[in-house]
Amino acid sequence: xxxxxxxxxxxxxxxxxxxxxxxxxxxxxxxxxxxxxxxxxxxxxxxxxxxxxxxxxxxxxxxxxxxxxxxxxxxxxxxxxxxxxxxxxxxxxxxxxxxxxxxxxxxxxxxxxxxxxxxxxxxxxxxxxxxxxxxxxxxxxxxxxxxxxxxxxxxxxxxxxxxxxxxxxxxxxxxxxxxxxxxxxxxxxxxxxxxxxxxxxxxxxxxxxxxxxxxxxxxxxxxxxxxxxxxxxxxxxxxxxxxxxxx
Amino acid sequence: xxxxxxxxxxxxxxxxxxxxxxxxxxxxxxxxxxxxxxxxxxxxxxxxxxxxxxxxxxxxxxxxxxxxxxxxxxxxxxxxxxxxxxxxxxxxxxxxxxxxxxxxxxxxxxxxxxxxxxxxxxxxxxxxxxxxxxxxxxxxxxxxxxxxxxxxxxxxxxxxxxxxxxxxxxxxxxxxxxxxxxxxxxxxxxxxxxxxxxxxxxxxxxxxxxxxxxxxxxxxxxxxxxxxxxxxxxxxxxxxxxxxxxxxxxxxxxxxxxxxxxxxxxxxxxxxxxxx
Lengths: 247, 276
Known about the structure:
By secondary structure, chain A is of the alpha/beta class. Chain A has helices at 40-47, 92-97, 112-124, 140-152, 170-187, 198-202, 221-226, 228-234, 236-243; strands at residues 2-11, 14-24, 29-33, 55-60, 63-64, 74-77, 158-162, 190-195, 207-211, 215-219. In chain A, strands 6-7-8-3-9-10 form a six-stranded mixed beta sheet, with helices on both faces. In chain A, strands 2-1-4-5 form a four-stranded antiparallel beta sheet, covered by helices on one side. Chain B has a single domain (3-275), classed as ABC transporter involved in vitamin B12 uptake, BtuC (Orthogonal Bundle), CATH 1.10.3470.
């Protein structure tokens, strides 16, 4: 479903990503992890065609990502919007409805079915009671749930989530991971989730993709815990902490 | 003379009809521009309009024929500067704005100084709008508003979160180009209503007034349009009744609406805090 070949990206003479090659198959649940500045968000943006690679290529659903095809199959949660305007005059429903735009053809009108889909998505994330509220009147955690709802509302086949659990309380976080696991298991939705928390994502993801400008590790969580290379990279005690972490 | 008797005059009918269309157009674009932090693009393009009007007067060409293409090209220039020169919108606007003013002053000096015609473009004179200008205003406003309505969801998506819109497959570059070109057309049309000096007021005031009281994006657009419409029409009548400059009257009524909305919002917020 996603094929990355010798992908590199340079920004202002700084090499952010170098020579990345890997494949993500349909139904995979990938935990994309790495330290700050390792290029995780950049990789997501390259896959989505939001950035142009310096070298190499990314294919999404068989097409180059720059061609912007199969967008109706994609759900995307960007990293907490740095330019988010808390005074933007928009209700929760209006923002979640934006997630349906990709499925619509000109002149892109929402119908009764779409309204019901929005209702269902709001209920799934326990924000049905604030559907009429303005986005700026919500707490950080509620706003994040609204953006998650926007990513999920169009029943995507491919989900890209950049640090989705930021600002979520533990109960909401667990509920969110439950929803993702169900989507992945039952609907075969491909999930690529960026996080710093290897221990938590290891409980849910089928594969870990650890990057630090290049691929350091790509495999299952069990393989990660048994890998001698990872022991050398992280150190035995750090690896043990990650692999045997208890909530 | 009563207000209804004023409506018998052709020049007042023309002012109200063209003013109404331009008001709705300005308010709609104004909501988008203010939210995208491009509030001063109206000011910048108005300065370019000044330069192009001065050129038109120098070469004795009807100013609209020069202003429209020059201002549209300048709006695209602002977009390209933001993309290629990697500067924020305010700096790009500042560059074109300064060029426009400088060009206008040069053209005016070559023509022997500022004259009455140039002053009327600076401060507007909607009461002298011609039949041809009314038809031009109606046609251009109707076309621009229709395109905005048909592309509503894409425009809303980009205005809220451009990155998400792009990832969703929205043709962001096409929409952004459309919006800056529409802004250029609107600024040129507005110069007759409130003049080059006050154009940005018609773009900004209805939008910020709506933001005080709106309970959603659609309602913000509708409230802004209503405020703009009422401000233009009441501004025209106020200027007639009190013998005041029309452009300035329209802007002051706009400001009064903003002040009222702000006070209502503050009082309502205060009452809510006391209750809780």
